[in-house]
């Protein structure tokens, strides 16, 4: 047994590891937590701030996709106000569809609205016949129905669970009415059923819509037999009816319009996040410089007893990487916990959409540790280029 190992047996485990592995990155970090924890905390807070902000901002376009996700199940076709065109348009779909069809539905729609974190958004009350209503709700993933379906011609409606939470509706609540400006109907339309599904849905009787809502225009919906083919059907309909009376409503259009709508917003966010990353990076560079200056005696003595600059540089770089990676991981973890609390306390009671683990927010945090690492490497390399161990040993710190 070597003298070094014998000495290690007589001291506590942490000190024993330090004796046996004096250049291990963990040695200094664990024995000097008072200096390394503040560095890690700064990185953690920066990452948490960026991730939380991006997740909250991204919840706006995400909410649009969630609220109008019912359109994933079908492609809607309107005749642009010409009532005579609806049968022809639907017949064209039957004859020329590139995929097998499950059902083509004739319907009507009236205006309504739902709430979001940025205000009120337009929505539709879809008028369907009884068989089509059952099919539509099943297609939207309904697992159960609390209450019943609307009676033909009656001012009654079924809403999905998210809509009920969002508008604070119960069985017997009015979802449309004479004095509801954005959700107008000549009669009070009461909720008689709540569909258990995560899709946002409002449906009522086709007969009621035809009797009380104008303009008197029938619309159409086409459902692919296999859900995997629905996107193909949507794109085909968009191309086929271009320049004709048919206007298409499809989910891919929502995704495209949402992306275009928020392009400028995210460009502004890029500037803000880049500025924040720049400030944090320079601040970390100054902290790293102070941090390394306090260790000159340690580096000088180690080099004086035989350790090379390359070994010392490797140690310091590994320490910096460990601190940065740990701060980044903790920052994302803290952001996740913060968003979980925000979702539970602020978003879920009104069925607002929020991704607690948003891939976009995660991507925005990646440049921060890399920028800090580059500055840290530059600081360390410049420090070691002019490092004089003899001067340190002689107590002439340079």
Automatic annotation (TrEMBL):
The chain crosses the membrane at residues 37-57, 264-287, 316-341, 361-382. Keywords: Cell membrane, Membrane, Transmembrane, Transmembrane helix. It is found in: Cell membrane. Pfam families: FtsX (PF02687). It comes from the Bacteria. It is a multi-pass membrane protein. GO terms for cellular component: plasma membrane. Belongs to the ABC-4 integral membrane protein family. This is ABC3 transporter permease C-terminal domain-containing protein. It comes from Fimbriimonas ginsengisoli Gsoil 348. The lineage of its organism: Bacteria, Bacillati, Armatimonadota, Fimbriimonadia, Fimbriimonadales.
